[in-house]
Amino acid sequence: LESFNPKASTVDAYFEEAPMLENPSFGEVELKFIHQVFYGCYRYSKLLKLFVTSFIYKAPATALRSEQSLYKILAYLLFFRLEDVGIENFRQFINCGHGSPPAISALLQYAMDPDELHRWVMEEWLKHYD
Questions:
Q1: CA–CA dist 76, 48 (Å, integer)
Q2: To the nearest 10°, the Cα dihedral for 48, 49, 50, 54?
Q3: Is the model's pLDDT at 110 over the cut of 90?
């Protein structure tokens, strides 16, 4: 996500050239899923950035700026793809070993707290998506 520049390339062109996707262990289904998640994170980048920025502001002791892309991906999966992915698979993403466990836990608590979302995120989302 960090290295993608929409002014220099399209999502599809970038995805085709991404060296990290040349891993032979990725099958067609996995590559399609990665492409969909990448595209979704790009499509909803403003919303995800607002969410992650507010999370980092609210949880400065646990949230790590270096993990922002991970937080965006997890937020995308949680807000837009949880039904498709399923709880068990989402749990595997959470427990995959990437990211600080206290930060991931704080992210999930923040995402599931309607009061926090209304107070810190919803107003900004409405400014962009009204």
A1: 7
A2: 110
A3: yes
